[in-house]
Amino acid sequence: MNWLGLLVLLTVAGLAQSIQYTCGWTCGLRPMVSHSGYKSRDDGTTRIVGGADAKPGAWPWIVSIQHPKIPGTKHFCGGSLISAEWVLTAAHCFDLIFNTSMVYVLIGATQLTQPGPGAQVRQIKKLLRHENYQRRDMSNDIALLELSKPVQCSPYIQLACVADAILGFSVSEEHNCWIAGWGATNAKDKTPRDHLQEAMVRPINIQLCNGTFWYSGKIHTHNVCAGYPQGLIDTCQGDSGGPLMCQDNHADYWWVVGVTSWGKSCGRARRPGVYTSVQHFYDWILAHISTKNV
């Protein structure tokens, strides 16, 4: 094993000890698709906006956050399972939720109306929104949900790898990254989808994303932009809180590098999806979760 591969292994193992502690030391693996010959579609032609149906178990850490009073699938936001008791999501998902006792989390499902026997449901024990979150400019748009009891890992339920800003995954424009969610498939129809959608995106240089004719200074240093200059493939309403995921170039691990935060419409040219950088808030995440791990 070369030194870089060893560093990746040690990094993941270190994260397992500090964050992912109940389901074993591995994270970011996709057992349902890694040995099946299935490859996520990357032709970029088909919703998310511009995505395609994900196979069962394709993204085993993604969760659906639901409320019983929402019509249809009950879904209103996504999230990532980062330990057996904690879900990472966006703070703005709870702007209009004043009582989290009715909110629940569906884990291990691909189709919401037929989640299957491998799916698990948990209520929310605690909501932790970032103390400096501001709705007016979407700054610090990140939150943690403590689940009512730990989930049981399975091929359909795995933990996401959360990259440390120093030793973890480095996002670059060369990476093929992925988005997934049950959100709307176009800006006009805001109805969440029943079946999980996935699509490949590329990280976009933050200076370009923040430039004239793009977002013109509205992007924060703790944001990540991803998509394509021409638009067409993007997250949309209902995908908020879900993950931006990139595969390590030197290993099979997938890293959650962003939390879906906002964007101008869906799939517009020079208006890519804007994500909260998980690496920027790694210490904040760890500070809240590690107190439960001792």
Blueprint (SSEs and pairs):
Blueprint: H1 3-18, H2 31-34, E1 52-53, E2 62-66, E3 75-83, E4 86-89, E5 104-107, E6 120-129, E7 143-147, E8 161-162, E9 177-181, E10 197-204, H3 206-209, E11 223-227, E12 243-247, E13 254-262, E14 273-277, H4 282-290
Parallel strand pairs: 8-13
Antiparallel strand pairs: 1-10, 2-3, 2-5, 3-4, 4-7, 5-6, 6-7, 9-10, 9-12, 10-11, 11-14, 12-13, 13-14
Entry summary:
By secondary structure, the protein is α+β, with helices and mostly antiparallel strands.
What does the model show?
- By secondary structure, the chain is of the alpha+beta class.
- It has 4 helices and 14 strands.
- The chain has a 6-stranded antiparallel β-barrel. A 6-stranded antiparallel beta barrel has the order 2-3-4-7-6-5.
